[in-house]
Structures are given as C-alpha cells and as structure tokens.
C-alpha cells in the first residue's frame, strides 16, 4: 500500500498511528504541503479533493478521508481492534474521535489558516487565538467525557490504545504547536503520556517521518 | 429515545434523515440555538460539548456526535442498511460522508460564523463567501467522486438511499441558504432531486420540524 501524506498533517499522523497499531507496512509518499504539491494535477488524479492522506491499495483503489480509511482498516484488519465490541461503547469512542475529526482539526488546518491570513489579514497571534478557541472547546468536552467514563484506563477507553487515542494524540501535538497550555486537561495529558511510551505512536510521530524538517 | 436537536442544524438534519430511513421514532426535543439554549447548564449536563444533536436512549445513555450516532444506528438497527457490504465500497461511501462531515459542515456552522462576525467584523457577504469557498471545494470533490463511481445510481451509491445521501442533502440545503449556485454540480443536484421524492427525507427536512420558523 502507498501512503500519500505529509509529516506534519494531523490527519496523516492519525492514519499513521492506526497503521502502526495494526502492524501494517506502507510505502511512504511525501507531499510537501508547504510547496503545494497536493495541489498539482498528478495528485488531483489520485485524490480529487487534493488533501492528504490517501491510501492506494495494491489493486489501484485509492481510499481517501482518514475517518473512512481508519474504519476500513478496522474492517479489513480487525486485529488488534481499535474499537470496543459493545455498540454503546463504540459510539462513545467514536464520539471522542469525532470531536477531534469534525470540530477541532478541520477548523485549524492549513487551508483555513491560509484563508484567515489572506482574507482577514490574520497575524500569528490571531491565528493562535483562533486555533486555541476550537482546541480548548473540544478538549474541555473530551476531558469531561473521559472523566465520566467508568472504563477509562491508561488510554481514552480501557487499557489498550484505540480509536480515540488515534485521533487525540495528533491533536495534542497540534495544540503544542499553536502554544495552547495543556495543563488545563490532566486526563488528556495522561493519555498523551501513556501513548508516548508505545512504539506505534513513536514511529507515527511527525518528527520520525522521512520528510520531517 | 429523545432527540435533542434544532430544525436548521445540519448535523441534526442528517441524524433525522438516518432515523427516518431506519423507521425509528423519537421524542423531539427542540433547542433554539438562536436563543443559545444549547449553552445552558441543563443541556451541558446532557452533552458536555453543548452541541446538537444528542440522542438519549431509554436507559439514560446519551449519544453525541452525529457521525458516532449514525454508525451506532447502523450497528443496532442494521436494516435497512445505510452502508454497502463490501469494505472498499463502505470506505468510498464513508469518504463522501466525511467530506461533508469534516471538511464542509463544521467550518460553516453557527459558532464559527459568530466568531467571524465578532472577531473579524465579517458582514453577510463575507460570511457567504467564506461558506461558499468550503462548500464549493467539497462539492467539486464529491461531484468528481460521484462521476467516477460505477455503482452510482439514483443516489450517491446505488439505487437505495444511504450514508452519503444522509450527509449530502443537509449540506445542499445549507448551500442554498448561503446562496451557492448549485447548477455547477449536476450529479449532486440529481441526487438531491431523487431524495426529495422520499418520505424519509421530506419528514426530516428543517421546514417539517415542530420548531421551524
């Protein structure tokens, strides 16, 4: 499988974590978003949405959108499972993931911040305040949901890493970049520390990628 | 089940469509977002994220985040199915849904537009241009993906309504509100017309809700 991605992209990062947790190897294809390589015609032919990540299967099928790809991984490569078995617990874990996937990450990604800089003359403090607003709102909700979950363990849900951790860790990384003070969320910080011990998360980290820099 | 929602909320709308397609009745609980009823303490106790929709089950469990709730519906009430059986096809349909769920809707929702008005002094033309940018980028990608799908039928994928339609139709409704010209996307428009014939979509429409106005 070919993984089209960028070391610092949060959606690429979450997909790399899922792939490493599943023990799946991929060929790493880097697209430098800073050079707008994702906007070139050859990548548009691979992913019409011109966003990373995309996963090209051996038969040529291209999967796009990290939430769709990660659910596909769970269906095609069920072990180790990223989701619990019980549907209510699955809904809880998917809700944690969706808070990041829908209500934090897309609002802070590259194309949005470029729009703010270009059309609203936003400087770096204004951009950090924008990102901090949505990260804080989402993390406040996640922290409350983690506190209320009787099955919280070393990780977001239970004592093995799962879907919620896959989404949360890249968002914590991004929060650090936007200078958000993480001490406000001790449970999220504890999950982050637990994940940092695991090889799958270390190998998927932006700084560990061949295009990092 | 109690459905906490708001007639005009796109995420509420998509969940209502899924519930109607599954033939499930709910008790409708309206929260008027214009009066900030979702920001009151009593709703925060139900959903710490203070967003609609939320679905309270008979045992008191509250499900939040429409993508998580819709996957739960598919698991607990599998018939009629909203997703195809084949994992690659499921990934395709989920990708279409995710383009709306992650890369269009959250960027244009109420709290973001309020921030633009308040912090960037955005007027209604500026807000419409903002929304039009993200709707157009997403719809361009969806239109291309629909054109390339050999299993496209009357609906996004095949000849029965499914997950992609559940997400797409509320976004089309929202595009109309933000004065986006839909003639640019004939395949999306055809799906919209097909869905408009179905009772599940009619009953889920914002204008058909008790709090509409």
Would you kindly provide a written description of the structure presented here, covering whatever features stand out?
- Chains A, B: It comes from Hylemonella gracilis ATCC 19624.
- Chains A, B: InterPro entries: Glutathione-S-Trfase_C-like, Glutathione-S-Trfase_C_sf, Glutathione_S-Trfase, Glutathione_S-Trfase_N, GST_Zeta, GST_Zeta_C, GST_Zeta_N, Thioredoxin-like_sf.
- Chains A, B: Pfam families: GST_C_2 (PF13410), GST_N_2 (PF13409).
- The structure is a homodimer of 213-residue chains.
- The first copy, chain A, has helices at residues 10-21, 41-44, 66-76, 87-103, 110-119, 124-148, 163-177, 186-195, 199-204, and strands at 2-5, 27-30, 54-56, 62-64.
- In chain A, 52% of the residues lie in helices and 7% in strands.
- In chain A, a hairpin with a 5-residue loop joins strand 3 (54-56) and strand 4 (62-64).
- The first copy, chain A, has 213 residues and is an alpha+beta fold.
- Chain A has a four-stranded mixed sheet, with helices on one face.
- The first copy, chain A, has nine helices and four strands; from the N terminus they run E-H-E-H-E-E-H-H-H-H-H-H-H.
- The model of chain A has no long low-confidence stretch (mean pLDDT 97).
- Chain A has two domains: 2-80, Glutaredoxin; 87-201, Glutathione S-transferase Yfyf (Class Pi), Chain A, domain 2 (Up-down Bundle), CATH 1.20.1050.10.
């Amino acid at each position: 499988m070919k993984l089209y991605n960028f070391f610092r992209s949060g959606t690429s990062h979450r997909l790399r974590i899922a792939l490493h947790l599943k023990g799946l190897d991929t060929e790493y294809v880097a697209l430098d978003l800073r050079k707008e390589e994702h906007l070139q015609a050859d990548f548009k032919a691979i992913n019409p949405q011109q966003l990373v990540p995309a996963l090209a299967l051996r038969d040529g099928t291209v999967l796009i959108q990290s939430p769709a790809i990660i659910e596909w991984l769970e269906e095609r490569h069920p072990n180790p499972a990223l989701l619990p078995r019980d549907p209510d617990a699955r809904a809880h874990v998917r809700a944690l993931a969706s808070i990041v996937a829908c209500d934090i990450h897309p609002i802070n990604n590259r194309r949005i911040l470029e729009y703010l800089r270009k059309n609203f003359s936003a400087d770096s403090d204004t951009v950090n305040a924008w990102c901090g607003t949505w990260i804080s709102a989402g993390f406040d909700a996640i922290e409350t949901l983690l506190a209320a979950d009787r099955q919280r363990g070393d990780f977001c849900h239970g004592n093995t890493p799962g879907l919620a951790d896959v989404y949360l860790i890249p968002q914590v990384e991004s929060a650090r970049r936007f200078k958000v003070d993480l001490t406000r969320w001790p449970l999220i910080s504890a999950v982050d520390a637990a994940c940092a011990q695991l090889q799958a998360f270390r190998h998927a980290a932006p700084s560990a990628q061949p295009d990092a820099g």
